[in-house]
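Can't paste images in this forum, so I'm doing it all in text. The chain is below; anyone willing to post the predicted structure tokens underneath?
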Amino acid sequence: MTIDIGGRQIGQGYEPFIIAELSGNHSQQYDLALQMVEAAAKAGAHAIKLQTYTADSMTLDVKQKGFVIEETDSLWHGESLHALYKKAATPYEWHQKLFERANELGMLAFSSPFDEEAVDFLDGLNVPCFKIASFELTDLPLIAKAASKGKPLIMSTGMASLSEIEQAVNTAKNNGCEQIILLKCTSTYPAQPTNTNLHTIPHLKNAFGCEVGLSDHTAGVGVSVAAVALGANVIEKHFVLDRAAGGVDAEFSLEPDELAALVIETKRAWQAMGAVVYGGTQAEEKSKQYRRSIYVAKPIKAGESLTKENLRIVRPAFGLAPKHWQSVLNKVAKTDLEPGTPLDWSLFE
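Text version of the structure:
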């Protein structure tokens, strides 16, 4: 199934769709966010994505257990959820200007809504699709609301079980959305290649009959390139201008030169998949001359036998194939043969 997002076709017959996720790496500086959009376009990204929420739409401003991040290995250890989301939120008034700049630069632009009001807000900006974040995949009312707008849905699966993904997909379809892309996603920040489990990608595609991709929180581009080889048509990566300068997601975000490499290398991986081919391609046809064949190596007089001493198997391949070696030994030359003559059936008795 080919999916149309803003006039761009998503599917196996098209190069991977690369999304640069700005997240909160703009540190709530509009000029920095604008620079990020421009850098993403220069790197060749096909789309930028924002996150549309406020701290109050995400959580409660309390410090009770569960509302403060306690995991010691978390990038955000000790922060309250409300404070973190307040720091990472993209102001609503930026959205239209950032979207317009992205469009001017040839990119699509959309966002992840985190509540039903955000869906309406984004729909009013004519976004070409909606992205459902992995933690929201079980928020079926949110999915129903987004699906009702008649636009494609990209949904990260994260920690979801097969049954939870099925519920999300069915909810989307039951509310009018048939164009669904599911992204394999490991909901750790950063994620490690060892817990990415890319073999899930073809299984996900077969299980739900949807286009599939990867929301990649690992370092570098290797995991994303491998995902394309397994059928991913969409790659989403967090983006930052300079990891050293910080940003809430900076540690697992790509810098501009890395994003450019992602665009190039995922396209190469997609181009390389091709079809099952044996015997060489048309492009390789000329290279066949550099195989080996049987040649006259020393002068041979008419009536003289062909032997291991006066013949050799060498490159190029204009003589008899090496498989005929035993058949030609001890045959008698019809004419004088000079070194460098490709052996042919007509040259001996």
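Residues 38 and 291 are 50 Å apart (CA to CA). The mean pLDDT is 94.
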